[in-house]
Amino acid sequence: MKAMLRATWLLLLCFGQVHAATAEEADAQAAKALLEKALAYYQSNGDKAFAAFSRQGEFVDQDRYVFVVNTKGVLLASGGPSSALIGRNVSEVLGPDLNKSFKDALAVPEGSGIQQADYRWQNWNDGKVERKHVYYQRVGQRILAVGYYLPRATPEHAKSLRDKAVKALEKDQAGTLKAINAMQGGFLQDDLYVFVVDLDTHRYVAHGTTPRLVNTDFSKIKDPDGKPVGEPILAVMAEQDQGEYRYRWKNPVTGKVENKHAYLRKTGHLMVAVGYYSP
């Protein structure tokens, strides 16, 4: 009976992962198809196409829409909320990281075909800043683009990153702690990050987004509402080698306090944790 239940659980888990991958693949195909449609329309109509791109119609597909910038960074058309920026140099409203990626995209020579990039942008459906993947192509002095929002990190993503960190620590503890604190080595993946606590001293030894917490007392950590977080997590790890804990914490991507579900695992005298956020 237990074997059957385990097999059923594994099947459902695999189905969930396949479903997520299939959904993302469908989003990617739909975004690319919308861009190809816009490119064909622009080739036939030139800049007159901007009016069609900027209204609700055939060039808006759910949260996917066409937008156009010129090589100086001025937004010329948009079927999304960024339409309010039409006529402005978009780089003026972008953060440093996104601005660099934006300028790199503007520098792509004509004839390079469809290009791809990732960035973060506000989703007009839920108002949250989320990961977005964009397809774009330069035509003369214009760059036409369509993007789609990537799915949030899943419980499986969080567990996988936690286990990756555990294996790395067991192989090279000092090097892995250094990599986590330097936000390198793949231990920071959008809103997923690793933090490590010494169970003997109860102090942080690594944190994937806030290295200034290193050497501070984890047992005294509280959520934004003042509810203890560190103490109950340490209590969980005092009784078992791995566990889970739910609390409220600031999402480094959205900048908002959200529900967080952390997966914990002990390796030697260290506790490794990775959590995913949910709205």
From TrEMBL:
Family annotation (Pfam families): sCache_2
Span of the signal peptide: 1-20
Keywords, comma-separated and alphabetical: Cell membrane, Membrane, Signal, Transmembrane, Transmembrane helix
Places the protein is found: Cell membrane
Membrane topology, from the record: Multi-pass membrane protein
Single Cache domain mapped to chain residues: 20-103, 158-231
Record-given protein name: Cache domain-containing protein
Species annotation: Pseudomonas yamanorum
